[in-house]
Write a structure and sequence with these properties.
By secondary structure, the chain is α/β, with parallel strands linked by helices. It has helices spanning about 15-35, 35-55, 55-70, 75-95, 100-105, 115-120, 135-140, 140-145, 160-170, 180-195, 225-235, 265-285; strands at about 110, 125-130, 150-155, 175-180, 195-200, 210-215, 220, 235-245, 250-255.
Length: about 300
Amino acid sequence: MVHVSLYVAGHRAISLKTRVLIAGLEALSWLAGVVPRAVAEPVCRVAGLVWYAGVQTARDAVRDNLRHVLGRQPTQLEIARVFQYGALNYWDTFAIPHVNRAALVKLVDVHGDEHLAAAHAQGKGIIACTAHLGSVAFVGQIVPALGYAMVGLIEPLASPELFEFFARQRNAQGARLLPISTGALRELLRALRRNEVVGLVSDRDVTGSGPVVPFFDALTRFPDGAAALAVRTGAPIIVAISTRNANGRFNALFEPLPPVAMSGDTKQDVLAVTRAVARRLEYHIANHPEQWTVFQRRWPEDGPGEE
């Protein structure tokens, strides 16, 4: 299937600002293909500190997120480290088109690939739930590198041109990423019927319509798309976690979602599975809070509202 962006509905004028931004991103992508990772990493860490110092809204959001994760007020250093990991993750995204399968396999230590194989053997497709943890866009490329067809969703950006740029970057190793939409849901169902992997970043409810569930020390809305797909199709859920090591290598962990008792009530079953996903993601985020790169408030200041 050839993906045509939802934004491509005809010709539109592109502002000079957008053209300059895209040109800059293309240049960074080119640099990611020629600059050694050992050279790029310290530069990214400095860039992360600049980002931390310059964007107060993101800084306040990370502070509040870490407060919930750590159970205390984070230090300025702990907040700044999240921005450094965010900058490193962007660099990794720029590097995706320049990393071949052999290099990717050498960079990523895979744990639990037997769970992927067992889930694939069921023939119902696989729903891989992940978080904004580690370099998820880069490490996620290990799934097609292991021989599994994969399709996923990414949230639309304000600029269609920006969306297309990042979609091209992330699609470069064989994964197919679609903008969130009703049409994309149909394609996810088709992918599961083809026994493919559906990858969903499941730690942030971008639509604001998910159920309210416990997450760390408070209630918040959580995306239930993975649970709804699993209940509807019977496809198994695999929790897929990426983390970055101090030596510049990465871990890719695959684990089955712990069994969830089904009641036969679709709404209640979707809620129960969503809670189970939230618990596993909470566990992994708690182990690597500095690598959880969510730059929006995960818990609204005025509470999550009514379900």
